[in-house]
Amino acid sequence: KEHHKITRESKEYSRYKKSVLKRDKICQCCGSSEDPEVHHPLAFNAYNHLGADTNNGIVLCKTCHVEYHHKYGYKHRIIP
């Protein structure tokens, strides 16, 4: 089945981010409520069809998000 491309500018992506932020509220790594960002455990580019799936989203603070990508890069990887 052909999937339509999810873009970070789409309304469905905006709804996805809001839903994940509302659900998780704090960093799922360190528990911080500062600078929350939504992270795709299965990479957005590699698994675009899951780009707006809330089951493929967790909240990380900016620090943990940067550290994650510094350590693991931007490929399809699940948080250990």
Features:
80 residues, alpha+beta, two-stranded antiparallel sheet, 2 strands, globular
Query: Mean of the pLDDT scores?
Result: 90
- For the secondary structure, the number of strands is 2
Could you say which overall geometry the principal axes of the C-alpha atoms support? globular
- What kind of sheet is the major sheet? 2 strands, antiparallel
Question: Helical amount among residues, as a percent range?
Answer: 25-40%
Instruction: Give the helix/strand class.
Output: alpha+beta
Cα-to-Cα separation, first versus last residue: 30 Å
The low-confidence parts are: none
Count of individual helical segments:
2
Sheet with most strands: strand arrangement: 1-2
Q: N-to-C SSE series? A: HEEH
From the alpha carbons, calculate the radius of gyration and give it in angstroms.
12 Å
- Tell me the fraction of residues in β-strands, as a range: 5-15%
Q: What does it look like?
A:
The protein is α+β, with helices and mostly antiparallel strands. The protein contains two helices and two strands, in the order H-E-E-H. It has helices at residues 11-24, 62-72; strands at 36-39, 58-61. The protein has a two-stranded antiparallel sheet. The longest helix is centred in the first third of the chain and has 14 residues, at 11-24. The radius of gyration is 12 Å and the shape is globular. The termini are far apart.
